[in-house]
Amino acid sequence: MEEQSAQARWEQRTQRPLMALAVAFAVAYAVPIVDSSAGKTLTVGCTAVEWVVWAAFAVDYMVRLALAEQRKEFVRTHWLDLCAVVLPLLQPLRLLRLVSTLLLVQRRARMASQIRLTTYVAGAVVGLLMFGSLAVLSVERESPDGNIRTLGDAVWWSFTTMTTVGYGDHAPTTGLGRMIAVGLMLSGIALLGVVTANIAAWFIARFEKDDVEERRQTEAIRVLTEEVRALRAEVAALREGSVSR
């Protein structure tokens, strides 16, 4: 068995801790938005957790870059990871930390061989729905003309936006909210397309498996029939020989 590279060993060992940090980021991001009356201490603590999680993923990228056998090729093929690492440093907005951390989590999760595609896509859909709701609520709640003022309104809006239903009963009114809407639309269409393709692939694989099993059984019956015919021929030959004697 071929020995794993140092980069592969690092990715395997850090997979679960980084996913646990991603959950911590989700909680830290959600708490100040859901609880608008949260005190300054709690808000600052949640912000610190967000930066720590982003820093952990940034360090993970740098370590993987250092361990890569061909670093130029690594940067070329992981340019989106690099953008996600640099993005919050250019303009440390909370929303940029959300976007960059989601990108890093997504790219890192896809490296895990033990995570099945269906599980990953389902988790991505739920995560996108949750973070889209929280993000739009955080920018629309204080808007004078906004109509997304509760978490329920935000979740409903995100769900109808991701599924491209778009009832129009709730809609962002700020520029930043509309940017979030565009991102949610594009991401939702892409993810739902993957879900549909994955379901179709499952059915196709199932039908192919059934077809292979049916062909195997048919072949077994054919072989058995040939053996019975040969056995009958031998019995007939033996009978003719006994009669001739």
- Counting DSSP E segments of at least 2 residues, the number of strands comes to 0
The percentage helix is: over 70%
Q: Report the sheet with the most strands, covering strand number, pairing sense and barrel closure.
A: none
Distance between the termini: 66 Å
Strand content: under 5%
Q: Give me the secondary-structure category.
A: mainly alpha
> Count of DSSP helices?
8
The stretches of 5 or more residues where confidence is low (pLDDT under 50) are: none
The ordered H/E elements are: HHHHHHHH
Shape: elongated
**Radius of gyration from the alpha-carbon trace, in angstroms:** 29 Å
Mean pLDDT value: 79
Topology:
Layout: H1 6-34, H2 40-67, H3 71-77, H4 79-90, H5 94-109, H6 117-140, H7 151-162, H8 175-244
Helix pairs in contact: 1-2, 1-5, 1-6, 2-4, 2-5, 4-5, 5-6, 6-7, 6-8
